Each structure stands twice: as C-alpha cells, then as structure tokens.
Please model this.
Amino acid sequence: MARRLTFSHPMGTVAPVGALLRVGERLDDLVDGLADRLRVPLPDPFAPELIVVPAAGVRHWLAQRLAERLGITANIEFTFPAALGSRALGDDLGGDWTVDRLTWTIRSLWLADGLDDVVRARSVADLFDRYQMYRPTMLARWAEGRDVTADGHPLPAHQIWQADLWRALIARLGVPESEQIRDRLERLRAEGPDPEARLPERISVFGITSMPRSLLEVVIGVSRHRQVDIHTVTPSLVRWDRLHSAWTTPLAHPVPRSDEALLAGGHPLSQLWGRTADEGQTLLLDAVRAETDAAIEVVPSNDDRDPSLLVALQRDIAGDHHEPARTEVAVDSTLVWHRTFGAGRQVEVLRDHILHLLSEIDDDGAPRYELRDIVVLCADLPTFAPLIESVFAGDDRHGVPSIPLQIADRSVGEENPLVLVVTAVLRMLDGRFRASDVTDLILQPPVRRHLGLDAEQARRAGDLLREANMRWGIDHDDHVAAGIGVLEVHTLRDALDRLVADVPGAVALAADLSDADELD
Model:
C-alpha cells in the first residue's frame, strides 16, 4: 500500500502554526505519537496542554495511557469539540436561537394562524437547530428568499413552509446563530482566537473520527494561529489511502451520497457498519487538505498479536478485503455473537457473559480478567443506562452477584437520579406518553423505591405493559385529542384493565400505576 508521509515541522519542536493529521488503525499507536509531542514543552511552562476528545470514556482511557508513557499527566486539560468551538468563537452565541426559546417563538407564530401545538413546535425547533449545525448554506439561501434544498435544487411544494417559517423567525429574532457563527469564523481565520479564550500554542485532537463541518472549520481556523495536531483512528489504512489518493479538489457541501463512488467496495462490514466512519474521515481529510500547509502522517499498525478469530477479522477489515483472507483460523471465544430479544434481555446476557469472563483463571491460578479490563460500548446509552444499572445491581435472593460499574459519557443531569425522573416525566408530557417512556420511568431507582419494586419486579412491570399491548396515551382522551380515537385500546388505562383481568398478581401493580396523582 502506498503511504504518504510529510511533515511541515520536525517532531522535536513546537511549530508556531499549522495542522498535522496523524492517521492510524489503533489508538495505542496514536497515543505513542501524542506522548512524543507532549514531551516537548510549550513555550509557556505554566500553560496547560489542551486535548480535545470525543467522549468522557476516551478521556479516562487516554489519561491512563499517557500516564503509562509519561509517568505523570499533570497540567493537561481535556475538553470536547463543542466546548472548543464555544471557546474559540465565544460562548455568547445562540441567545434567542436556542432550541427551548425557538420552540416558544415558533408556537407564538403559529398561534397567529390559529395553530397551538407545542409538541410539533419543539420538533421543528430541533430540526432547525440541526439545520444550523449541518446545513448553514441552505439556511442562508432561505434567508435570501431562495427556496432550495441543501444541494441547490428547488424545494418540494410540501416543504416550502419550512423556508417561509425560517424567514419569519429571522424577522422576529434577527440574525440567526448560523450566520453569527459564519461571521465569527471569518474573524477567527483573519485575526485568530480572542485572547480571552486562553488557547495554548499547541492543541491536540485525539480519537475523533467525525465532526460536523462547522466544528471542523473551527479547528482548521484555529490551526492558522496555533499548532493543531489531529490524531484520528480508521478501521483500515488501505481504505483511508484510497480516499486520500482520490482527493483532488475540495468537496461541495453537503456531499451527495450518490457521488461517493470511491467509498464503494471493500470489506462487507465496512460497507454495512462503517459508512459513518467513512463519511467522517472524508470530511476530515477534505478540511485538512484544503489547508496548503497542513501535514499528513500515516502511522503503520504495529500488530504482533497471536492469530485468533477476532484478530483475523480485524486484519481482513484493515486490508479492506472483499472476501475473507485464505487463512486457517480456528473458531474460538475471541468473537462471540449473541442474539437476544428486547433491550432488557440483551443487558442480562451481557451481565452473564461478563460474570463468566471474571470467573476465568489463568494457568498460574490468577484471574484472567479484572473489572478494569472490561469496557462495554453502547450506541444508545440514554435508553440502556437505566437497564444496565438495574440488571448489574444483581439479585442476592437468586444468587446473582452485583457487578460494580461506571457509566461514562453522561451529562450531570443524566447522572442525577432525580433529574432523570423529571426528564422522563417531561418527555412523556411533551410527547405521546409511549409505552417505552412509561417503562423507562418505572426503571428509575427513585420511582422503583416509591412503588416498592425491586429491579426484577420493575423489569417485569415493563414486560407486562408490553404484553398487555400498551402503545401510547394515558387513556382514550389522548387518542381523541390526536384525532384517531376510534377504539379505546392500546393506552395505559386499557393495559392496566387487561392486567387486572388476565394476569394473576397484577392487581397491586395496576393500582400503583393507575394512581391519578402519580399519572398527573
């Protein structure tokens, strides 16, 4: 594979400005390069090293790995991409354009036309907030009176109301946040970050595979006045090199998916599960290559692991082979696939599997794994976090031990159990009172304690509601308010009536859940 290695400055000095993109297949290989950079002191010995990470889990892992290589990790400040954007551009952006305030502005505009729908106003506010992050050019065209899509085609007739509403919001609120960001980006490129931002001379971005275009522009804008090192991981250097070689001119944004022919082919898992990573790497490469003084370094993989089923699969993905390599690999337990039904059962199987791992013993009689060796990745943490806490608490009465755990990447509000309860209630009141929302509420520890349910009983309560065919709504009135109140079925009240009539032992649970004060 052809690898390109260029440097705009030697590794032993801190360059005054510029961007360095380091790409590797393993995070451990990238940590070595980051540690080498940090060994070179900054011009100001009291200035902290600033490292941008994608999540709290990566922050904890990286701090440990740097401590192993450097001996100490003092005076290092970890932050997240959005926080870097606020720091570089100013934290006074948004104002009336935050989602909460935008919701009520949209509602007030609709009230003038006789429409009062807070739930729909909230959905539209969320949509416009995403437009400001990912489609600022389209919004700028709407502000000019051009009703076009993101790629410049005319808006379909049934979507023109969005452009009209956007112009009405600008008339009411003034300059939108997306335009404020664009103005400040231009100032950042020309003048550099505000001294009040206190950005050090060197900034490291580690482990981030994708960022919105607006945040990428902030990082590149900062690199014109600071040294910015971007350490990013890719599943396959072969696939990444194909992207690198095909890049000739800056991409048009947004990039139509029909034009991504260079991402076709390769390993089936890369095609099935790696599309987001491919697109993120494409945008990152495009942003860096657009800077003429940017340097790109490809870090070869130092993979000397013993052959196993998992290693064979990872090497096939790294080589971007369309067909598995013709090697004899024995089936072993390094790769296990579980097929389960439901989120609750999925977490129970995970718990049992971890308990088996913790019980394994090496030849010398020492435990093969400790809790610190185990990391669980979850794509939908807000949904699974209550289940994980409940299931991993164990059940002493049935001989199921508890497993100590720490759930990372949650906000302060998500970590506070009372805030989680309030959030769950507000989500139900702001939506359709769905069965999944009721189940999530029951699983919250404060609610379980109030109802006198243990973890297993709370899970069973959720199962009973699903078995009783609850879908959404408290009672028939909710369905009537939505305009579909034909049959008095699939509501919480209907499910509780079914449980009382059909399920032995469910009367007490139904009485607790149907308490009018608690429901209201």
Summary: Residues 1-13, 516-520 have pLDDT under 50 and may be disordered. Residues 22 and 453 are 52 Å apart (CA to CA). The longest helix spans residues 118-134.
